[in-house]
Amino acid sequence: MPYVGNKPEVGNFRKCDAITTSATATYNLLVGGVAVNPNQNQCIVSLNGVIQSSGNSYTIANSQITMASALTSSDVIDFILILGDTLDVGVPSDDTVDASKITANIITGQSALGATPADTDELLISDAGTLKRVDYSYLKSSVVNRPNAQALIINGNMDVWQRGTATVTTTGDYVGVDRFKISEDTDGSFSTERHTMSNAEFTTTGFGYALQADCTGTDASIGASQTAEITQKIEAQNLQLLQYGTSNAKNLTLSFWVKSSKTGTYCVAIRKRDTTSYDIPIEYSISSADTWEKKVLNISPTAGSTSLITSSGGVIDNNNGDGLHVTFCLAIGSNFQGTNNTWVAASKLCTSNQVNWMDSTSNDFYLTGVQLEVGEYSASTLPSFQHETYAANLARCQRYYYKMIDENVALATFSYYSASRVEAGVSFPVTMRTAPSLISTSGSSYFRVQRNGGDNNLNDLSGSNVGLNHASIYNTDEASGTAGDAGYGYSRANGVLSWNSEL
Q1: Of the options 3.40.50.300, 1.20.1250.20, 2.60.120.260, 2.60.40.1190, the CATH number for the domain spanning 168-391
Q2: For position 1, what pLDDT does the model report?
Q3: CA angle 482-483-484, nearest 5°?
Q4: In this structure, what are the phi and psi dihedrals at residue 101, rounded to the nearest 5 degrees?
Q5: On the CB side of 315, how many CA atoms lie within 13 Å of its CA?
Q6: Of 182, 251, 409, 443, which is most buried by a Cβ count within 10 Å?
Q7: Contact predicate 346/308, CB 8 Å
Q8: What is the pLDDT of residues 151-201, one digit of tens each?
Q9: What is the mean pLDDT of residues 95-122?
Q10: How far, in Å, CA of 186 to CA of 194, rounded?
Q11: Is residue 236 within 8 Å of 321, Cβ to Cβ?
């Protein structure tokens, strides 16, 4: 059976060369003329026909045997027999060493760890099958714990498009992808739509969709007060962990994937809206045309000015109002141009190096994977994007905009308050940020209430008694029925209802 430890080499019996004695106690040990250095306890030595005692009658060291006293020429060393001077480490077969062959105290300090390890404590890890010691301090520095339970940027993966995914040209509104406001007041125009990633793009970025912007009308010379940008506004009470307005104000790291046919210097602005408004423009470069590039930008609360964000004017109120804007610049006039990486108490979105993306209808711009982290990170230390389920992502978006019904779907049970007023109560799937406003399409017979064996066609609906979780919808223009009647309501072609409480 295999052994754990050392054992004599089986069969390695050797007899030392004959030794001629003289008036000395020390003699060389040779086997076949070659010096050997056996363990004295593994040797049998016979002198004058008597077996000698190891350690008492002789010692062996450095390929020499030394007798307890000097010999004479008449003494005869009959033989020196080496029983085994080479040791072999036995290698157990796989799965042959179990708990029964290992004592309980094989590892010193085997009890369970009762406290957080010290930085100098070492742990064993396997590196490709080789055990290595690693200081706890190194492992601790590699662990990233987000202070925020959910991502600060909502719908940063561009998955939710309640308003529709088709091409929309805008002058400044929420028109397509949820939570990103599209603004443009130049002499040109641009449109946005949802871009579905190819397999190669998905492999590169890890995202299935992107926001696509296309310049549809040019402005070769942007006016001083003109802008074109894409913005997400973050609710103030979601930002209290930043501790803005105190000496403990936190660093931020913004990352995103971007692609454009137009290369050059672009800017992102972080804009604090509460108390005193402060902006900080930050440059980044799109280096290769039509190529996805990941950007990681650090935002210090003391960048350029050490006191703006860390003073009382930097406070972000703990309420449901406007906290921070994250603005991606496409073309910005000189009135809004400031100094790179510098907080300022003015509306500054970019630097003078910002490209004019509006100068050609060949220009496009793609954005996805927008991520805002508390702390300062590099590309190698940045926490992974917090992918949420679609349902969780949609619910977060619905706090700001809720598309209640689309065309040709059931709506609610209506009752006739009077012959000319029909109304219904509705509930929201999540608590809205503020009491929302109702957005209703309007046109001939866009909605219908079936009641009392007949139909009542309605052109539009209005909202009343609107709260954060419930509201009423009604019509007093086309409503026609008997007070107390009830009916089944639904939308017809082009009938759409939404509730809006965007920042």
Answers
A1: 2.60.120.260
A2: 45
A3: 110
A4: -105, 0
A5: 6
A6: 182
A7: no
A8: 999 999 999 999 999 999 987 899 999 999 999 999 999 999 999 999 999
A9: 62
A10: 23
A11: yes
